[in-house]
Write a structure and sequence with these properties.
The chain is α/β, with parallel strands linked by helices and 375 residues long. 36% of the residues lie in helices and 18% in strands. It folds into 2 domains: 335 residues, NAD(P)-binding Rossmann-like Domain (Rossmann fold, 3-Layer(aba) Sandwich); 38 residues, no CATH class. The longest helix has 20 residues. The site of nicotinamide-adenine-dinucleotide has 29 residues, from helix 1, helix 2, helix 5, strand 5 and strand 10.
Length: 375
Amino acid sequence: MNILITGGAGFIGTHLSRQLLGRGHRITVLDNFLPQVHGGKQQLAAELAPHVRLVPGDVADETAMRAALDDVECVVHLAAETGTGQSMYQVTRYGHTNLMGTSVLFDLLVGGAAGKLERIVVASSRAIYGEGAYHCEKHGPVYPPSRSTAEKERSLFDPLCPVCRGTCVSVPTPESAPLSPSSWYGLTKQVQEQMTLMFAQVLGVSAVALRYQNVYGPGQSLSNPYTGILAVFSSLAREGKPIRIFEDGKESRDFVFIDDVVQATGAAIESPLAGCHSVNVGSGQRTTVLQVAEGINAFYGGLSSIAVTGAFREGDIRHGLADLTQASRLLSYKPQWQFADGLARFLAWASDWSPSDTGYEGSLAEMRERGLLRG
Ligand SMILES: NC(=O)c1ccc[n+]([C@@H]2O[C@H](COP(=O)([O-])OP(=O)(O)OC[C@H]3O[C@@H](n4cnc5c(N)ncnc54)[C@H](O)[C@@H]3O)[C@@H](O)[C@H]2O)c1
């Protein structure tokens, strides 16, 4: 197939392009090489550049998008601004890329800019669930709303049952869970997903929205201070700088290795599916942030001190864990990577990188100044 990958120069897009080229597809990438992600580099990975048609440009630029859509049969829409915390104070910027860019894409598709289009795959996110699914002994499955600032200020980090205000425990979140994002980033991903599923029906093509959990692995941006605690912690641990952890360190994420994400995304592109689908893509394993910090610090010889600070950021959720039943049924998806193995692979790769100032402290100062980082 002729496949357009928007944001294809990024972390997931680069791995995906490599796999799809190997499977005989023709790839076009539309990307504006966002400096925050690419640190000034304006090129595709060297081994991909000769084989990929590159359209440098902004997704919200109609001329660039029209050129990129020429002759495509499948669109994989990955281009996005991706920092949860940053989205809370760069509202217009996130709206521009995530909403306006997606609007331009569908303006052109509805206008017939890709006459051979068969499928659209959009990168959605677990962020659209907000806190996600919990189980209360008394009330069964419940979906707590975003945690209040007042609760977090009293170190009450775990969401309570929305019915009885008693304790409830986090369980894997299925796609049928209500959508209730806790951040502007999450809300823009929800809109991207719903736009894609709605316009796909109008266009009479199939669509898959992939609700990625926390993706990690070699190739992820190490210079973007707004995304990826693995990148942040590894640069601190290498230099023996203190690692400060938000909340009580027991907050957890479903870290999914990039190869598993590429496997699921390839299946979403190639599987003979009709209609529109939303599918979780994760590892199905829960890892706390404290475990991540300890694992990374141990890899670098335990040079850093690890402090659990009780501070918290607005927009962050407490726990993320995907229910993978639908991914297995629709995409025959089965994650292959254990977190410990994936982390070792990531750290081996990240060790070759020369740490410089990642801007992490500056990013925290920006949030604190706006009252979005407290404690
Ligand atoms: N990595 C994760 O953990 C994760 C989790 C959930 C969802 N996602 C989603 O997956 C997609 C890809 O994420 P990633 O981790 O590869 O991120 P990334 O930042 O590495 O890649 C995104 C790419 O989009 C490009 N881009 C940004 N704004 C653009 C614009 N206005 N015009 C054109 N290109 C633009 C960037 O230059 C970058 O190459 C995103 O939609 C993200 O929201 C990622």
